[in-house]
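Lecture notes, unit on binding sites. The following record was shown on slide 14. It pairs a sequence with fe (ii) ion.
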Amino acid sequence: MASLKELLQSADYKSEKHVPVIEAPDKVKKQDTFKVNLSVGKEIAHPNTTEHHIAWLELYFLPKGEKFPYQVARFDFAAHGASAQGPNTSSIYTQPAAVCSLKSEKSGSLIASSYCNIHGLWESSKEITVE
Ligand code: FE2
């Protein structure tokens, strides 16, 4: 049986262009809202064409010691150059980057996933301490 956990690929984003990059503070205060920047291609640009692009990014939060993750955001990137004239003719391309604001009462892991329309699923994570 195929399993998503075997299909989710991971690597260092500095050497692999598909890995979602999570930029967030290492430590936050319980009452404070903090920003999480998500992107793909920070170090090595990923193509953004009708034929080859990042279609979406998702962000989850797994509180420390818990079993189930919470989905906190999903970003769909819908413009990849397609128009009635054909591929790569519209002049508009959504870049795979997004920002969201979060507040957490518990420490845990931010987990991001990205989807390339031809190279599949990728993931990364970042610990965050809430005090
Ligand atoms: Fe790709």
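Take-home: Strands lie at 20-23, 27-28, 34-40, 54-63, 70-76, 97-102, 108-116, 120-130.
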